[in-house]
Amino acid sequence: DLLHGEKSGKKIGKMSSIVVKDAEETKSLVWFRNDLRINDNLALNSALSAPGKVIGFYCFNLSMFKMTNLGFPRIDKFRAKFLLETIENLKEDLKRINITLIITIGDPVEELMRVISQQKIKNIFFQKEWTQEEVEEEDKLKNEYNNINFKSFYSQFLYDPNDLDINNISNVFTNFRKHCEKKLNVKDLVEYPKKLLEDNLLKDDYLTPSLSDLGLEDFEIDSRSAFKFKGGYNAAKERLDFYLWQSKKINFYKQTRNGLIGQDYSSKFSSWLSNGSISAREIFWEIKDYEKNILKNQSTYWLIFELIWRDFFKYISMKYRNKIFKIGGILEKDYHWNTDNKTFDKWVDGLTNEPFVNANMLELKYTGWMSNRGRQNVASYLAKELNIDWRWGARYFESQLIDYDVHSNYGNWMYVSGVGNDPRDRKFNIKFQAERYDPTNKFQKMWLQTRIF
Ligand code: FAD
């Protein structure tokens, strides 16, 4: 079962060698957060090199599925379903290397504390996050225990944070990109995890919950969906194989990336990247491999260019911390913002005066997806035409988008709203955008003529 990466010597195949561990030794826990994969996962790999047993842990944070004051939960059904599928895939992958994934629902810190005392955990390995809520979780946990080793790793980047001076990162994307491309290397994937002996498995098998366990209703995927997303590494890998090797759609990415309809105008990698079902480095090396063996052109480069945007927003959020959640953004702008619920709800429901905005908002409402072109337009319209607090828009995206990622979302919202990294502070002319990107109204008709409510 060797995959394309083998050609360039990358270990992304599915072959595992067996490692013998002493059952009496200390136990390590891998706390999975937004790194929901076994391939190229630094936390998991480090746990595997520690002595003793290894257990996986994931907690569905129940508070994320509760209604907020804006009338939607932090995670609504589309991303929740994707997450459930991702966890099921992770559980199976871990099982293949004889690691049990403990799956719980509740408050992550409380659930972790329960498991720590039940299992007598001595080491906890996890992906390092730096946004407020995640840091608070870590701090709470660390305050409870001084006899546990906490070891965290950055597994979410293309370029390693240890190679960058975070406080001096340029606020201009082009400068950041050029620095990375000239001075840094994307590191190889870490070794594919080794298989443990069967006695590493716990007696209990943990079930993945259902949508209703999370308080959400099941649903049918809308037939107009741009992409029928399925969570987990297997689906991510399948998509990667398809977009590169099978269909070679990547050859035309630069020309098609502003599209609005269909599966293949863009890669659709974002959802898997967001919860870490696949690593950005794995995608990067696969593209490099493709360039070596099939074709290298502006389009293949452009996909890497976009992955650098993803890194850029992560670094901006790391540099500015909580400022990304403040109304003035990283520029600390003192603009006037409205907080009118009726106007906001009209935007959410696709009932504004702009059909192009409405069509995009309906796509989001019914599918959990919107193209990059659509996102830029609807965000610009909310922030710069309706002057509604841009963070409300960001919160709605958080709830709906399958590919929600805190850094990309807040970074892009700030950018479009004039409080972030756009040196030009532009405003989109929505009518012009609709004429240019939807000249025959095909996209607008698709969503507006079949309005369900
Ligand atoms: P492709 O065009 O195929 O690009 C490949 C990859 O590059 C993407 O998967 C993504 O990881 C990265 N990428 C591309 N464009 C951007 C960008 N502008 N910023 C950061 N990374 C990028 N992206 C998210 O992943 N999560 C979000 O929550 C999110 N919120 C956004 C909010 C607004 C207001 C805007 C304007 C953009 C947002 N984006 C977000 C960025 C972008 O729209 C999506 O990453 C992209 O549309 C995903 O589709 P794709 O995977 O087919 O991208």
Key descriptive features of the protein:
single chain, 453 residues, alpha/beta, 5-stranded parallel sheet, two-stranded parallel ribbon, 17 helices, disordered N terminus, binds flavin-adenine dinucleotide
Structural summary, described in words:
The protein is an alpha/beta fold and 453 residues long. The chain is globular, with a radius of gyration of 22 Å. 43% of the residues are buried. It has helices spanning 42-49, 77-96, 108-119, 132-144, 173-183, 233-246, 253-256, 270-274, 280-293, 298-320, 341-348, 355-367, 372-385, 390-400, 406-417, 430-437, 442-448, and strands spanning 18-19, 27-31, 53-61, 101-106, 121-127, 149-153, 195-196. The chain binds flavin-adenine dinucleotide. Flavin-adenine dinucleotide is lined by residues 257, 266-270, 273-274, 303, 306-307, 309-310, 313, 372, 375-376, 379, 397, 401, 403-405, 408-409, 412-413, 416.
Q: In terms of topology, how is this protein built?
A:
Elements: E1 18-19, E2 27-31, H1 42-49, E3 53-61, H2 77-96, E4 101-106, H3 108-119, E5 121-127, H4 132-144, E6 149-153, H5 173-183, E7 195-196, H6 233-246, H7 253-256, H8 270-274, H9 280-293, H10 298-320, H11 341-348, H12 355-367, H13 372-385, H14 390-400, H15 406-417, H16 430-437, H17 442-448
Parallel strand pairs: 1-7, 2-3, 2-5, 3-4, 5-6
Bound molecules: flavin-adenine dinucleotide (FAD).
